[in-house]
Recover the amino acids of this structure.
């Protein structure tokens, strides 16, 4: 497991304390007696997993500024929701590791679309957007869904129209980088992709595809698709000094996804979850699998000692561990941050 805070306050700050662990860094902040809140966030690029059927390289990269932005928001008197929004928005603007914000992860048609969610652990209110098109500030639109509608999730072109009505600018999310990624993918016969049981053979050719007359159930392996591109995004958890907890996510999804695909990031309980009475959690992984297990909500249902929390984190991944490996970050109301890997 590797959990590390990004861009923490200087070591002299009374609000941040880092503890080195065997395989990485686990932030274990303590706010007892402090006069300001704490922020931690978790961002991944790739994950190493060895389970017999695939082998993937690990890389954790800093995306400078998002935690600092969130912390400064809190220090200026902002709420936990404000901090989550500002932190995720900073990551969107900086295009963190190419998996967040505009100009990354083009879909099959070459378009970059965005997913985001923000959740208030006090009210249990959620605002989310999926398959958001031509709007850069996805987390900001998600906040507007939370504040100005009774819905949880808006998606696609309708979400874009909603964003425009809220004052967001409609602009192209493509860049030279995303266009080059798409061109290279097309030159490689659209490999990898997320189709199966179609003609022409999706493992060899580009589409358009259609279903065969007789369905052959041989499927595809996650080694070829999701496990190659399935770990990215930003998940942020904030604990305010008042005890309010909030969580948020933002991502541009997986590269070369089928247009219209929405991942786990905007789904409460899958991408992230927050409850003041229990804590908050966020994760990254194969979103199409994560949505089937809602592991972030399950993870938070266990209480007790720190060791018990870690064990609960492990148990929450048991049902999905056969399918993929998911890093998790979990914050408790007593301001302890724990982590576990679902291996």
């Amino acid at each position: 497991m590797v959990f590390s805070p990004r861009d923490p306050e200087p070591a002299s700050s009374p609000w941040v304390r880092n503890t080195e662990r065997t395989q990485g860094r686990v932030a274990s902040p303590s706010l007892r007696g402090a006069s300001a809140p704490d922020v931690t966030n978790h961002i991944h690029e790739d994950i190493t997993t060895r389970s017999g059927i695939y082998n993937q390289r690990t890389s954790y990269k800093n995306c400078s500024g998002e935690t600092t932005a969130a912390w400064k928001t809190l220090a200026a008197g902002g709420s936990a929701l404000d901090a989550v929004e500002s932190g995720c928005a900073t990551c969107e603007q900086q295009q963190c590791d190419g998996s967040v914000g505009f100009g990354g992860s083009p879909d099959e048609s070459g378009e970059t679309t965005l997913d985001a969610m923000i959740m208030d652990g006090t009210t249990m209110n959620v605002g989310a957007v999926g398959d958001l098109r031509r709007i850069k500030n996805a987390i900001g639109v998600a906040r507007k869904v939370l504040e100005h509608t009774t819905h949880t999730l808006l998606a696609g072109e309708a979400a874009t129209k909603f964003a425009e009505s809220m004052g967001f600018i409609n602009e192209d999310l493509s860049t030279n980088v995303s266009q080059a990624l798409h061109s290279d993918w097309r030159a490689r016969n659209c490999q990898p992709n997320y189709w199966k049981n179609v003609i022409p053979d999706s493992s060899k050719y580009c589409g358009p595809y259609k279903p065969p007359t007789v369905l052959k159930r041989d499927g595809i392996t996650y080694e070829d698709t999701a496990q190659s591109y399935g770990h990215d995004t930003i998940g942020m958890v904030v604990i305010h000094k008042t005890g309010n907890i909030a969580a948020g996510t933002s991502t541009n999804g997986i590269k070369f996804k089928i247009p219209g695909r929405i991942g786990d990031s905007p789904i409460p309980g899958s991408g992230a979850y927050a409850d003041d009475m229990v804590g908050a959690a966020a994760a990254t992984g194969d979103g199409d699998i994560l949505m089937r297990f809602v592991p972030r909500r399950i993870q938070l249902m266990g209480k007790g000692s720190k060791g018990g929390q870690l064990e609960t984190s492990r148990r929450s991944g048991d049902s999905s561990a056969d399918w993929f490996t998911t890093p998790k970050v979990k914050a408790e109301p007593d301001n302890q941050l724990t982590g576990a890997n679902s291996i």
Residues 1-62, 219-230, 303-330, 336-343 have pLDDT under 50 and may be disordered. The domain at 29-174+227-338 is CATH 3.60.20.30 (Glutamine Phosphoribosylpyrophosphate, subunit 1, domain 1). The first strand starts at residue 18 and ends at 20.
